[in-house]
Write a structure and sequence with these properties.
The protein is α+β, with helices and mostly antiparallel strands. The protein is built from seven helices and 26 strands. 16% of the residues lie in helices and 27% in strands. It binds 2-acetamido-2-deoxy-beta-D-glucopyranose (5 copies) and fe (ii) ion.
Length: 458
């Protein structure tokens, strides 16, 4: 009997050891050269030549399933032409779609004419060209629509957060662009960071639009609102939150029965992507809460196995920067994420990189006071990828000791890739700027929570 106990104890200790090795969180010792993040000059990416030439071109998914594309651009001088012409790569038949035109004022800034045109009824998995402008200011671009939604459709997403427009941002962006694998970008908020300039200098929204055009004009970027999108500044008479962001970046929120562009969902290939707003009300009875409550049961994992949530302010983050800012939203929604077996939650905001093990903290109630995160195979992996390079610099003060939920953390700029292979497997990699694109600083095979809820190897 005693012998058996000893054996069991030994086995238990061995197991602990293995688990310990597996989850013994890594705080990378990589030390990035400390240099300030400085914004690139306003004219680093000058407007294209030609009178009234369309600029800041960007596309995003335009419906729930991926057969529509919203094309957005700015004409600086005149409203017209407000047309996008598109054609299939192997066809001469051209189609025209008219844009709706928005303008706005912010403090003493007046925007150009911001166009949004939704091209509908496209074919899946097809290359299209599109053309904007007229005369010698004509510009031509192309995109490829996603494959038809289905459970084993492979698809590769780039993941970028908190990009801003510093020289570091340029490095992150160029690094991502140099990776030929990325088919669309999950952008987890904080776009231009114009609000870091006096009176939120909105020319910085324009310069950002030109900076990222060489990717955003060619592949869909899926947008998530961050705190730098708020542009809430009553002291200068600007008291409408999200004004520049919502005028410039349109998303297909109505297609998912959302009543607000700040939260919505799309299906793309084998992924179901839910976008939440950390800076909109989410308590019980609020529109966002009511929407998410109805949304999660709609996800059909037989059609879209990969359930991914994007939001700006992380729930699991062991950095002292922005520590616990995401806590009240975690309390509101985490039990739903565990119940519905969300695969992955991607956040930004904290300017460093962190990946968690599958942990949850959902037992707590006001009488039992159980508030320690515990290992939970139904919990998502949480990624914090606010390390795009914005002007506020790196968040390099991690809390010690590293909590058990934290698998890997490092204060370096970079981006990530999510390579979905089939319904069971996806490969995640994180690429720091100071390495070549081919170098992977952190990686993890993710096993689908619905089809293959096994513990991931490390
Ligand atoms: C807006 O105001 C700022 C600061 O007062 C000033 O520097 C800038 O020239 C003004 N811009 C316009 C377009 O009036
Ligand atoms: C572009 O066309 C406009 C009028 O059509 C003309 O005034 C202008 O000189 C042209 N610019 C160039 C660079 O050819
Ligand atoms: C951005 O990066 C690219 C590629 O490294 C480089 O050619 C370009 O000069 C950079 N732009 C600025 C403004 O630094
Ligand atoms: C609080 O949690 C405990 C166990 O975790 C449970 O027995 C109890 O019913 C809960 N209280 C309420 C009010 O839900
Ligand atoms: C899914 O992809 C993984 C990784 O590429 C592979 O090992 C596995 O065999 C695939 N499963 C199926 C059913 O093809
Ligand atoms: Fe942020």
């Amino acid at each position: 009997m005693v012998g058996t106990m000893d054996l069991l104890t030994l086995l238990f200790l061995l197991l602990l050891n293995i688990v310990g090795i597996c989850n013994g969180g890594v705080t990378s010792r990589y030390v990035r050269k400390a240099e300030p993040s400085v914004d690139m000059p306003l004219d680093a990416f000058p407007p294209p030549p030609g009178f009234n030439a369309p600029e800041q071109v960007h596309i995003t998914q335009g419906d729930h399933d991926g057969r529509s594309v919203i094309v957005s651009w700015v004409t600086p001088d005149e409203k017209y032409p407000n047309v996008v012409t598109h054609w299939e790569a192997n066809s001469k038949r051209k189609h025209k779609t008219h844009s709706i035109i928005k303008t706005y004022r912010y403090f003493n800034y007046s925007s150009g004419y911001i166009h949004h045109a939704t091209i509908k009824r496209l074919k899946y998995d097809t290359k299209y060209f599109y053309q904007l402008g007229s005369g010698n200011a004509t510009r031509r671009f192309h995109f490829t629509t996603p494959p038809k939604v289905g459970p084993d459709v492979p698809y590769t997403f780039g993941i970028i957060g908190d990009l801003g427009q510093t020289y570091d941002s340029n490095q992150t962006f160029e690094h991502y662009v140099s990776n030929p694998e990325g088919q669309a970008v999950l952008f987890v908020g904080d776009l231009s960071c114009a609000d870091d300039h006096p009176q939120h200098d909105n020319r910085r929204w324009d310069s950002w639009g030109r900076f990222v055009e060489k990717s955003t004009a060619y592949q869909a970027w899926i947008w998530v609102p961050g705190n730098h999108e708020l542009d809430y500044a009553p002291e200068i008479g600007e008291n409408v939150p999200f004004k520049p962001y919502t005028h410039r970046y349109h998303v297909p929120y109505r297609a998912s029965q959302s009543t607000c562009p700040l939260w919505y969902s799309i299906k793309r290939a084998s992924a179901y992507i839910i976008v939440l707003s950390s800076y909109s009300a989410y308590g019980k009875y609020t529109p966002q809460y009511a929407w998410l409550e109805k949304e999660l049961p709609k996800v059909n994992r037989a059609e879209t196995p990969w359930l991914i949530v994007l939001l700006h302010s992380p729930w699991y983050n062991s950095n002292s920067y922005h520590y616990m800012e995401g806590e009240s939203m975690r309390v509101a929604f985490e039990s739903w994420f565990v119940q519905h077996k969300v695969d992955l939650v991607v956040a930004g905001h904290v300017h460093s990189y962190e990946r968690t093990n599958r942990f949850s903290d959902v037992q707590y109630n006001i009488t039992n006071r159980l508030s320690t995160p515990v290992k939970d195979p139904s919990a998502p992996v949480y990624l914090t990828i606010g390390d795009g390079g914005n002007i506020e610099g790196l968040a390099d003060r991690f809390t010690e000791p590293q909590p058990s939920y934290s698998a890997y953390r490092e204060a370096s700029f970079g981006h990530a890739m999510l390579d979905i292979k089939n319904r069971t497997h996806a490969h995640f990699t994180w690429h720091r700027n100071h390495d070549n694109e081919a170098v992977v600083a952190d990686s993890q095979w993710l096993f689908n929570r619905y089809w293959y809820p096994e513990e991931e190897h490390c």
